Amino acid sequence: MEFLGYERPDGSAGIRNYVAVISSGRCANEMAANIADAVPGAVPVIHSHVCVRLKDDNEKALRVLSGIGSSPNVAAAIVVGIGCENPSPATIGSEIAKSKKPVKVLTIMESDGFQSFIDEGLATTRSMVAEASKLQRKPFPLSFLTLGVKCGGSSAVSGIAGNAATGMVFDRLVAEGGTAIFSETSEVIGADHLIAKRAVNEEVARKFRDMVARQEAMITATGEDIRGTQPTRGNIAEGLVTLEEKSLGAMAKSGTSPLQGVLEYGEKPPGKGLYFMDGSAMTSELISSEAAAGAHIHIYNVGGGVSSSFRCAPGWMGDIPFIPQISVVSRRSKPHDSQETDFFDIFADTVIEGTESVNEVADRFFNEVIAVASGKLTKREMRKGYREPIVLYSTGPIL
Amino acid sequence: MKRAMRINSEDNTATALSDIEAGESISLVSKSGPVGEMTTKQAVPFGHKLAVTDIKKGDKIMKYGEVIGLATQPIGKGEYVHIHNVASALLPGAKEVK
């Protein structure tokens, strides 16, 4: 099977064709937004990273910001900064340049002043957009595609509706030779032994167990025992009986393919197939890392209840305009909220209502993935307005 | 007819897709559609589970084709499966925490 994408110089294929104006640090966010907002076809990448962080968090930020710039959905990138950021604008730019796409680095420190900096930013953005606009879509096999996933507002039926259908979509993409990434390290505690047994070899299984143990040690160090507090009272009232059941419901979205490898936050998978990435259960943080790892599309599974009536997407679901987000809901509000139709792309509540099987939802869902990959806009892409900076995962203190 | 989902053929539990009363005839469905019928012995709320086979004390409780816990008492086919008769297989003490 094929989709229509944009050929990139590094041999990858994009499904969107934006010029990214990347802020190298929080201080430069406004400049990046002002430049990008003035040019149709350009999007700003603004975020929460600041220079008063330690080495490990600076490395994570470099991996994610350069990874986002290297995304196949980005035709060309401009990194803008003051010049004093860590990671430096030049380092972010040289990392992005490894993807062979056009990259330009502009800093206030190396400019003749603010106005000339903005002028040069606008001129560069316009010429990059003009160049990108000449590109036509062409057919690529599905093996070029990478999907990322996250679930939130889980309900008793997430595991047997939306997450089950997503798992089947993942399995189908992997069967086509594509790549799928799942994460949420804290959510696999309790099901880690079951995911580990899907690993392709003992080394991957060990790395996976080590990553989960590292996360659990970080949680325990705060004085909380996640195993003793899960499932929560609310989960039990919803029908979940054990931590294993809760974790398995969350992990249902990974499907049944063998686990090829384990990635650090924002790390690119070295091959095709199913990968686990270290990351938090905060959606706005996770979408950044999955985008940095090369995910073309982000799947967001909403369980139901309050979360299905909630429309504040940028803060909750993350905000990377060039990564289309397919929103899935497992249980609709009753009576049906008319705005739901404008918010969600895939309704998996039909499994609960009895009008469709999980297989049928997965068929429809997989076709939607191919359509979105070929250019169909998601509900999320058809809304504009309020914007949030991307949140970057950090584990160390702020100085 | 009300329905319950047995997500994997190895499961000895199914998840109620609506509130089910005791003594109701229900349809069991898999990922691909209906797979059979059975009668409940106890009421099972939406999203909660019932046993689809007789389960002995100490037996594995299966959902998603995986072990989600162990039976702490015998559970008859059609009976409600919840924290009163299941404990985590990983955490013997986890039940007391709630």
The spatial strand order of the largest sheet of chain A comes to: 10-11-9-8-12-13-14
Distance between the termini of chain A: 50 Å
Give me the number of helical elements of chain A.
Answer: 16
Give the overall shape of chain A, derived from the CA principal axes. globular
How many strand segments of chain A?
14
As for the CATH topology of chain B, it is Archaeosine Trna-guanine Transglycosylase, Chain: A, domain 4
Number of domains of chain B: 1
Query: Which term fits the overall shape of chain B?
Result: globular
Counting structural domains of chain A, the number is 2
* Strand segment count of chain B: 9
Structural classification of chain B: mainly beta
- Number of helices, where a helix is a run of at least 4 consecutive DSSP H or I residues of chain B: 1
Report the major sheet of chain A: 7 strands, parallel
How much is the radius of gyration of chain A in Å? 21 Å
Low-confidence stretches of chain B: 94-98
The CATH architecture of chain B comes to Roll
Helical content class of chain A: 25-40%
Q: Greatest interface and its residue counts? A: A-B, 31 and 37 residues
For the residues shown, what is the average pLDDT of chain A? 92
The biggest sheet of chain B, with number of strands, parallel, antiparallel or mixed sense and barrel status, is: 6 strands, mixed
> Widest sheet of chain B: strand order?
4-3-1-2-5-8
